[in-house]
Amino acid sequence: MLSPGPSEGVRAEKERIRRAVWGALLEKGVARPPFPIEGRIPNFAGAEKAAQRLVGERIFQEAEVVFCNPDSPQKPVREAVLRHGKLLVMASPRLRSGFIVLDPKRIDAKRYSYAATIRGAFLYGELRRDNVPPIDLKVAGSVAVDPKGGRVGKGGGYSDLEYAILRELGLVDEGTPIVTTVHDLQVVERVPMAEHDVPIDWVFTPTRTIRCERDRRRPPGVIWEILPESELRAIPILQELRARRGLAKP
Fold it and tell me: Does the pTM of the predicted model rise above 0.90?
C-alpha cells in the first residue's frame, strides 16, 4: 500500500472484500483474461455494455478531456473516448513517468483499439508531467464499489494518488465527476473508506446505472504526511509538487 494511514481493521476489511469479489467473479464464470484476476482490477464479461452505459450519459458526452485508468476492463471506455474525438489522459505505470496524453486527431482511426492499450498509449501518446489539460471526467478501475461511492481498488493506492496529484495541479476539483465500470457482482453493500480514499459519483454495470449518494468529500490534494519517503523518491511528479509547495522532507 502507498499509505500507512488506514487502520488495520479497514485494511483487513478491504482485503476481505477484494477476495470475496475475485472469488465470486471466478465462481460465476464471468471473469475474463488476464488471469489470474487476483491482485488486479478484474476484467469481466459485459465490460463493453458497462462502457456503453457510460458513453450514453451526459457526463461523458459533454466531456472534452477524459482521464481513464489503464486496466483491461476499461479498454472499451478508452477506445470510446478516442472514437468520440475526446482527449484521453492516462497515468503511466505507477506514475513513474507522469501522464500520457492521447489526441485522437493525431492517431489513425484504425489504430484506436491498439492506442487504447497501455503499450499503444506509449506508442501513440505523449508523456507529460505538466501541461496536462484540465480533466472533465475521471474513470477509475475498481475491484468493488458501494452505492454511496465507496470504492476499493487492487490495493496499490495509485488511483487515489492520481486524483490527489491532479487536484494539486488544479486539473480536477470536488465537482469533477468520477465514475467506474464494473460487473454487477462487484457492487457490494459497503466499502470502508480511509482519509485518502476518493469516493466516486457513478457506477456503470452491464445491467444498470447507479448514481451514488456520496456522503463524504474528497481529499483536497496529496496528504503528504502519510506518504512514505520511498514513494516520494520513486515518483518525480511528487518531488516536483513538494518542491513547489516548499515542503521539507519528512
Answer: yes
